[in-house]
Amino acid sequence: MTAILPEPRPLIGSLVRLDPLEAADAAELFDAIVRPDVYEFGYGGGVAAMPADAAAFESSLPQRFPFATGIPFTVRIAAGPLEDHVLGTTSLGDLDTVNRGAHIGWTAYHPAAWGTGVNAECKLLLLDLAFGSGFERVKIQTDAVNARSRAAIAKLGASFEGVLRHHRLRADGTWRDTAVYSILAEEWPALREPLRARVDAIPAPLIIR
């Protein structure tokens, strides 16, 4: 099977809707994710890399997200009284159609979405998109010190491949070690049903503070 580049389009679930990220989303995204508790474990280069305001965040979008190699998404609530409220962002990037590899990452959510079905459904939608487009391997990685993120990735059933030591410099000059996981196309059918069941078991309403 040949991998093809998926067209940017909304991905709609029961809890969330993933819309291709646009500059017009910057102010809402800034309000949702640019906060120390989101950045403290290395997201976006760590707390020292937090943009000062929404304008600075918007101007940095091309550097922060993989527009050139994939599809960044804005994550919104799909239905209910808070429909369209921005929860965060995630991306399908590093799309390599020759070697059929993809990378789900650049992911951050408002803390009110932590521990809900939001991340599970985002991963479900993106993995369906990747494997449905013919990709063979999907990489998911995080800062090795981010225990919350590592636990969430492991709960997907992704295989731990190891740690890339001193993989990337954080904005404060310290080194980030990166924990790498992956899911293969042949593994996805068996992993998909438990993930779908997890999403279905989560109540739809989300409280945004």
TrEMBL record:
GO molecular function terms noted in the UniProt entry: acyltransferase activity, transferring groups other than amino-acyl groups
Q: Which domain of life is it from?
A: Bacteria
**Which keywords does this chain's UniProt record carry?**
Transferase
- Which residue range or ranges hold the N-acetyltransferase domain? 16-186
Pfam families named among the record's database cross-references: Acetyltransf_3
Entry's PANTHER family?
BLL6696 PROTEIN (PTHR43610), N-ACETYLTRANSFERASE DOMAIN-CONTAINING PROTEIN (PTHR43610:SF1)
The identity of this protein, by name, is: Protein N-acetyltransferase, RimJ/RimL family
* Natural source organism: Paramicrobacterium humi
